[in-house]
């Protein structure tokens, strides 16, 4: 589950969630950047998260 602002994206694969987030992020980057919270299930997901957001 990936949550930012009031929107929750719950997907089986983190890659799909990130793809969806990037599309939504383009609409309001500041809000996305401020509110994103992500529950990561594995080290691989953490690496993917870092690659896109840090």
**Distance separating the two termini:** 19 Å
Helix content: 55-70%
Q: Count every beta strand, where a strand is a DSSP E run of 2 or more residues.
A: 3
Could you tell me the mean pLDDT?
A: 60
Please describe the biggest sheet, giving its number of strands, its sense, and whether it closes into a barrel.
3 strands, antiparallel
Number of helices: 3
Order of helices and strands: EEHHEH
Number of domains: 1
> What general form does the structure show?
elongated
Structural class: alpha+beta
| Biggest β-sheet: strands ordered side by side in the sheet | 2-1-3
Low-confidence stretches: none
Summarize the structure in words.
The protein is an alpha+beta fold. The protein has one domain. Helices cover 59% and strands 15% of the residues. It is built from three helices and three strands; from the N terminus they run ββααβα. Strands 2-1-3 form a three-stranded antiparallel β-sheet. β1 and β2 form a beta hairpin. α1 packs across α2. The longest helix has 14 residues. The chain is elongated, with a radius of gyration of 10 Å. The two termini are 19 Å apart. The model has no long low-confidence stretch (mean pLDDT 60).
